[in-house]
Amino acid sequence: MSMLQLIASGDSFVTRRLPQGGYPGFQEIQALIGEHDVKFSNLEMTFHNQEGTPAAESGGTWAMAAPGCLDDMKAYGFNLYATANNHTGDYGEGGVTATIRHLQERGMIFSGSGRNLEEASRPCYLELSGTRVALVSASGSFAKSSAAGSQSGSLTGRPGLNPLRQTTVYHLTPENYQMVRQLAETTYINAYEDYGIAMGYQEPYPEGRTHFGPFQFVLDQENAVHSDPNAADMERMEKEIREAARQADVVLVSLHVHETGKDNFAAPPEFMEKAARRCIDAGASAVIGHGPHELRGIEKYHGGLIFYSLGNFIFETETVSLQLADAYLKKKLPADTRVGEYMNFRSHNETTGFVTLKKIWTSVLAGWTMEDGRITQARLYPLSLGMGVRRSQRGVPVLSQDDGTLEYLAELSRPYGTDITIRDHVGRIDC
User: Fold this and answer.
1) Distance CA 58, CA 56 (A)
2) Which residues pair with 81 in a beta bridge?
3) pLDDT class of 113 with cuts at 50, 70, 90
4) Judging by DSSP bridges, how do beta strands 80-82 and 64-65 pair with one another?
5) Dihedral sign of CA atoms 407, 411, 413, 419 in order
6) All structural domains of the chain
7) Percentage of the chain with pLDDT > 90?
């Protein structure tokens, strides 16, 4: 392997077919993607014709698109995909397996979901002339039922996604710690667990630790939130990355994470930072993050790159075709409500929510160069997804010359010691 050009997008929440011949700006995006060898996107949808049953819990919107939308993703030029995200299980196991079938029928190379945990965890491989590229994908944000399950000697596994669970512990000063204990006693929220401890079925909490339902607290001298990736999930990922490094020339990792541990949603949670760095240490050259639908910072780490979130590439949530009655009833709307009516109600006629936030509708494509297995430079191309455009046209990407997006990303990356220079409306990182 001599020189390799890679490019990655964030989330593709696609619900509408591409017009014949594309749209204004499509050819420029297509040409840019086409200049690269490895072209990645996260498919934040299920793709089938109601071949699954709506799950009791969705990723926020029950996400299903016509299988033909996969052909449109190929038309952009992408050749490598992740399928592990909070919408993977929106249509249950049937939606997972139908999406897999439609991807495979089109020869699309993907990782992150499978018919069991072993399959969902496994890397996929993109074969290029002189280079083999592996991708391992996982999601830290998902409904419990969407996680794939392992096979046993007597039972088949459960279709779903490759999970990266996490443990979060809240550190509190003595005053706040005592408040939590008093609130737990007042509400009896821990009564069932306390009964198990009293009966000897469960070990008591050590001194200086308490809980409020599922939330864990530690007595400390300062207030802080600390989170760690689940040990079993992290070890499974590292094992797959090390195997991919034996079998391929380049290993990429996709991580879909919505959570934050701070008051700034643009800041990734601690468990993601720890997991991403461990992925690089295990043999990945880049970690491609997405999930919060907005940009997060970029870190140079041990010769690798960590993109904590590349934001949106396609964001067509409001023109999804169908929704479960549960979505309407949750908003106290009739079960026969139409999707457009529901979207108007949810956004208060587009006066609140994502539609009003510029950072949802601006993002970047990240390209980078590898020479002899080493990353030498990254390039950041700003995108606009059409904030303020009418709903029927909003959510598709065009290249922009918005240096403000790049300046904002540079600000987010500065705490990681990453310098982004801007020239000719392109951000650059020397590695």
Assistant:
1) 7
2) 41, 110
3) very high
4) unpaired
5) positive
6) 3-163+235-322+357-430 (3.60.21), 174-219 (no CATH)
7) 96
